[in-house]
Design brief:
- The protein is of the alpha/beta class.
- Helices cover 24% and strands 20% of the residues.
- A six-stranded mixed β-sheet has the order 3-2-1-12-13-14, with no helix packed on it. Strands 4-5-6-7-9-8 form a six-stranded mixed β-sheet, with helices on one face.
């Protein structure tokens, strides 16, 4: 029995779906492994450089194929160049996703792209037989009925670009966006449309899009919707609780220099994940666990139902099958 026949019979017997084989499809014959960190919030946290250094040092030891940060990283100002110098210590390829807070203080997304030396606001790239699409979920919905707060929308222009990119993709595809496409509590306003767009790309015995990664929500959860894995990457630093639950968790000096920290529940150690995808359709996510600094949300009486998903200082290990 040859390998193709074995895989076909095995997948049918087990119910597992492997990357489909058909004329246009060119499945990877390699595996890919990459490091991902989200929502460092260097401009809020007092120890952003130490948290990023821990991630970069680990990535230098593990030598993944590339690293990516999922947004809310740092403002594009010269005072933050030392943080970028830490990021650039990783000598392999590195990629950026723009978050909603990266433009705080009147900065533009174009300034963020230039400061980070990112590939663009939205773009795609190929690595080891896999295709990656980076979206900019920070565009404005011009509708008068849009909800208040930060922009969290994919414009028609970007949507048309996405459709063309998906049409041209010939290998398993991973989509990255700061805001969740699967979370209607602060995720993309038109997340349903984006999910439908990805699902349409998978029609006709195709499984182009296999996974979507997001940050933004500072939580640890996972959804499987119409054949696509949606994985939320928890913040490297904290969850925001707001004024009602403020608590000084470090020294008075830290509080004076970084007054926003008191409105958060910080994680003692930084969180990140490594993700490996193999050509037989297995996705392995290796996360990290730590503890809260100071009182937990439960101790403070936080209304957890308002957050929908749990507030935990964890990125869970997961094994997923395509």
């Amino acid at each position: 029995m040859d390998r193709k026949e074995f895989l076909t019979k095995t997948s049918l017997a087990s119910g597992a779906l492997l990357f489909p084989r058909y004329p246009e499809w060119k499945p990877s014959r390699k595996k890919i492994r990459f490091g991902v960190i989200a929502d460092l919030h260097h401009d809020i946290m007092h120890d952003g450089p130490e948290r990023l250094s821990a991630f970069i040092n680990k990535m230098k030891d593990e030598s993944p194929d590339f690293i990516i940060q999922m947004g809310d990283f740092c403002y594009p100002k010269k005072e933050n160049q030392p943080l970028m110098d830490i990021w650039n210590q990783f000598k392999g390829p590195s990629y950026h996703v723009i978050g909603n807070h990266d433009t705080d203080g009147g900065h533009t997304r174009e300034q963020v792209v230039a400061f980070w030396k990112a590939k663009g606001r939205y773009y795609s790239f190929d690595a080891n037989g896999f295709h990656f699409i980076i979206l900019d979920g920070n565009e404005h919905n011009e509708s008068k009925s849009r909800p208040p707060g930060y922009a969290r929308f994919i414009s028609l222009t970007q949507l048309e670009w996405l459709k063309k990119d998906l049409e041209n993709a010939t290998t398993p595809t991973i989509v990255c966006c700061h805001q969740g496409l699967d979370n209607d509590a602060g995720g993309l306003e038109n997340g349903t449309l984006l999910r439908y767009t990805l699902e349409q790309a998978n029609q006709g015995n195709k499984q182009k899009v296999i996974m979507v990664l997001s940050g933004h929500h500072h939580q640890d959860y996972y959804n499987y919707i119409n054949g696509i894995h949606y994985v939320q990457i928890n913040s490297a630093s904290y969850q925001w609780l707001g004024d009602e639950y403020k608590e000084i968790r470090y020294s008075e000096a830290v509080d004076k220099a970084h007054p926003a920290i008191k409105y958060t529940v910080p994680y003692k150690d930084p969180l990140w994940a490594t993700i490996e995808i193999t050509d037989n359709g297995v996705i392995t996510i290796k996360g990290k666990k730590t503890v809260f600094v100071g009182s937990s949300p439960e101790m403070l009486g936080v209304k957890l139902v308002e957050y929908i998903y749990p507030i935990v200082p964890v990125i869970s290990d997961r094994t997923l099958k395509v």
